[in-house]
Amino acid sequence: MRVIVGQGSCGLAAGAAKVHQELEKQIKENGLNIHVEITGCIGNCYLEPIVDVIDDQGVKKTYVCVKPEMVKEIVEQHLQGNSAVEKYLISKEDSAILRKQKRVALRNCGIIDPTSIEEYIALDGYKATEKAVTNMTPEQVVDVIKASGLRGRGGAGFPTWFKWDAARKSPGPDKYMVCNADEGDPGAFMDRSVLEGDPHSVIEGMVIGGYAMGAVEGIIYVRAEYPLAIKRLETAIEQAREKGFLGKNVFGSKFSFDIRIKAGAGAFVCGEETALIASLEGERGMPRLKPPFPAQKGYFQKPTNINNVETFANVAWIIHNGAAAYAAMGTEKAKGTKVFALTGKINKGGLVEIPMGLPLREVIYDIGGGIRNGKAFKAVQMGGPSGGCIPASLIDTTVDYEALTKTGAIMGSGGMVVMDETTCMVDMARFFLSFTRKESCGKCTYCRVGTKRMLEILERITQGEGKDGDIELLEELAAKVKDGAMCGLGQTAPNPVQTTIRYFRNEYEDHIYKKKCTAKSCKSLLTFSIDKDKCTGCTSCARKCPVKAISGEVKKTHEIDPHVCIRCGKCLETCKFKAILVD
Amino acid sequence: MSCEKNGCKCNGNSEFKFVQLDPVIEKYKNVPGSLIKILQAAQDINGFLSKDIINYIANGTGIKPAKIYGVATFYAQFRTKPIGKYLIMLCKGTACHVNGADMIEEAICEELNIAEGETTADGLFTLNCVACLGCCSLSPVMMINGEAFGKLTKESVKKILYELRNQERAEGVK
Description:
The complex is a heterodimer.
Chain A: E1 2-6, H1 9-13, H2 16-29, E2 36-39, E3 51-54, E4 60-63, H3 68-80, H4 92-99, H5 117-122, H6 127-135, H7 138-148, H8 160-169, E5 176-181, H9 190-197, H10 199-213, E6 217-222, H11 227-243, E7 258-263, H12 273-280, E8 304-308, H13 309-321, H14 323-327, E9 337-344, E10 350-355, H15 360-367, E11 377-382, E12 388-391, H16 401-406, E13 415-420, H17 425-439, H18 445-462, H19 470-484, H20 488-492, H21 495-514, E14 528-530, H22 540-544, E15 550-551, E16 559-560, H23 570-574, E17 580-582
Parallel strand pairs in A: 1-2, 5-6, 5-8, 6-7, 9-13
Antiparallel strand pairs in A: 1-3, 3-4, 9-10, 11-12, 11-13, 14-17, 15-16
Helix pairs in contact in A: 2-3, 6-10, 6-13, 7-8, 7-10, 9-10, 9-11, 10-13, 17-18, 17-21, 18-19, 19-21
Chain B: H1 14-17, H2 22-28, H3 35-46, H4 51-61, H5 65-74, E1 86-91, H6 94-98, H7 101-112, E2 125-130, E3 142-144, E4 147-149, H8 154-173
């Protein structure tokens, strides 16, 4: 009998550690001899904490939303009595979600113990590395990756083989392979889950890539906000060194390669490769002009290749299973799979890995279970602050680089934030601009000042002070910031504004000309009033009102003075009779 | 400026306070590109990067204080002011924003009577808003000294803070 508790960051946040403790306590009290194991994130974040029980026949039962008080029953009835506690098990509908996915990058996440190299090896781990360094030439490795059609999963979708090949052909003995694990897009956590749940797959990808380009060292640049990922990577690197998979003469070959971790310090712009290199060198993370490309002059002026975590996680699978198997998935121009972090107003949020080419509708409704609380789907935001909003009318767009770019959004690194009728699109544009304004490194004037001016206009509009001509001014500034910025941050920062104006221009106009927020999200544009039929005159709203805008006698209908009201919403929270109207 | 004004409790003898940093400086001073690592270690030891500790690093490494300050202020992780006993990191990522992180911020500010980036007068709580904690499916989320709290509501967040404060008071009485 085996007991496994999912302990990625999200599982832990949902209370997995307490469940683990309780399991150990109850197992001990029942005199059982079972070691409680851990695993990474399986992706069904909305069901965390998740506990798997595998019996001696290998039958797996999955308990979801486990609370410490449920543990006693599970231990006594299932572990002791060998019959599952049906009421706590995962529903058929939920377990079907996993079957709709195609897991390559996430193949081991939520299945193996990320702190055990043996479990990774048992599932064909490091076989691809052995094959590459002992049986293939670097050129052959590049050719396999080329044939697989793997493109960078960090967002831009540049062919991986091309970068490796360029770095390989670049002269010089010291070359570096860098893993970009500075996952900065708010609303995205794919890389974190891979690093926490299957760190060896990333190490393997780096070793194989390092061999292909002729690198001497690998560096993983991880966000400091991901302490658990750093811990698990450190353990994994140590284990790989002990086995001889890293260090001098990998698998007894002539190829020597080691990996170290560098913790980032929190700057979104460091996702841009030249900024990341500057940060690796201990400087302010500011981008520089390209060319020279990092493949020619990168880390300390040496040829450097940078790939994203998810890209690396695919590499070993491709070498082991062959390029054709990978290329068989996806569309003509976008091969393989892509991991998405499905969040926002969705019923079943979490990590999903799907073959390229799947329509958004299937991702949101079939896998994500549709919109929370039966509300209407309004838009999905892809690609974070560099991406755009795709409206409900384009929900049949397929997930591939070209189709998504056509809508004005981008594939991005994999954030997919779903919005419903209560999300104000002008406010979303404001939100993303406030992010990029803060994260702009300040080097290019258009990005530094342009994003600030755009943000000011958006703030004015959401506060009900929008003027005629604001939309046009935003459009003009957006185009200029795109042209005037040197790096990807500035060039894409206006995307959220441009796509929301393109698809939701009416919302902008409502805010500016009618002073109305149809989503009822922008507080300054709301009016609070009292429903005369429902008000009982209990006075509780009047007592709570911080500005004394509500008047009325006891047991008589109350009234809100709109000129005094600051729209704080206190009355709405207080009223037990649903008598506060918001318009 | 005296050390105390910076929140340092070394009675002006900053040299004494920062000796813990010596092995780190020794290890990395000749390794190019290690400034961020040294600053991370310094912040772990001191809680924040005071002028004194920046000068101390400058003396040890030969890097100019202005450059160190430039790096320290570029990255979100580094603080140049002391923080409270409990550091509240409120997630303002996209998923949290859509699910009402602003409301949670309001509730925290109301409960603690501070604004974003400030520390309570009793030195217990500091509120920092961060870009994304990566727990999007539990949004809205905050992290207090490394422990994550998910699916927050105005009520639950006030309760969490109230309990922490009570716990501190109880310990103070002992």
